[in-house]
Amino acid sequence: MKLLSWNVRVLGNPQTVRRLRHSLKQHHPQVVFLMETKLNKNGMEKVRRSCGFQFGIDVDSIGSKGGLSQSWLGKVNITLRSFSNRHIDVFVEEGEVGKIWRLTGFYGSPYSQDRNAAWNLLRQLRNQGDYPWLVCGDFNEILYGFEKKGGLPREERRMEAFRQVLDDCNLVDLGYSGWWFTWERGNFLEINVQERLDRGLATEQWSALFPNNLIRHLPHSFSDQCPILLDTAYKNGEAVKRKFKFEAWWVLEETFFSETKRIWENSTGDLVNKLEILKKKLEKWGARIQSKNENRGFDFKTARIT
């Protein structure tokens, strides 16, 4: 299944709708989550039907702000659980998978005074069943400082609050392919700001259900924000790139910290590039250590840090 999530920044004119239709025809998503439509339910229903989506849940904008829509094709069975001006939460049932999972389209507050309320909403949604859970959308926040380029540095307490809510909800970032940022403002270098505000998050249960999932950051045209396209079963004639996984037992190894320091000090490029090098080399180091210890009879499956 393909899911497209996009902060479209207004769907109020025919040219914008035509560009949206073009994007949908190009990527063929079965489910679409749109934010900042700035339309009422009747207006949004007309737009999504013109895009070929007969089924949908539309949330009114509040004046000239907000507006959400989640639409799907008939091949996917979707049941509404709850909605607000910040989220649409549904059950998804695919015949091919044969299992039910949760999908929450989420729009984080762009205003600092409302951000805690948005995070608490996510916590409330977490406590509503133990189904495999996927959350995607525009969170209007970054997890780490390197997810922003240009402008004023993000306050650490804001990023920590975002990291904490993900920890509380047992959600893990699914990563991405393509441009590293999803939002951009300013055409000139001295005023240009780029941030990764849109992402997909999932529980371990969901990732186990769809181990070959892939998120791509797509080019944007009429919005200052990139659409993100999630494919639950990505295939491209080649092996799917395995996601980096930090193993807890690594920190038990005497050489872990010295090896990490050595890799970092010998890496070149910007912060993002150095982190990519660190991930790859730590995986190779971990594989060597694991192979050596397994030959001694050490069982990593039962290893625990206490």
From TrEMBL:
<feature type="domain" description="Endonuclease/exonuclease/phosphatase">
    <location>
        <begin position="4"/>
        <end position="210"/>
    </location>
</feature>
<protein>
    <recommendedName>
        <fullName>Endonuclease/exonuclease/phosphatase domain-containing protein</fullName>
    </recommendedName>
</protein>
<dbReference type="InterPro" id="IPR005135">
    <property type="entry name" value="Endo/exonuclease/phosphatase"/>
</dbReference>
<dbReference type="InterPro" id="IPR036691">
    <property type="entry name" value="Endo/exonu/phosph_ase_sf"/>
</dbReference>
<dbReference type="Pfam" id="PF03372">
    <property type="entry name" value="Exo_endo_phos"/>
</dbReference>
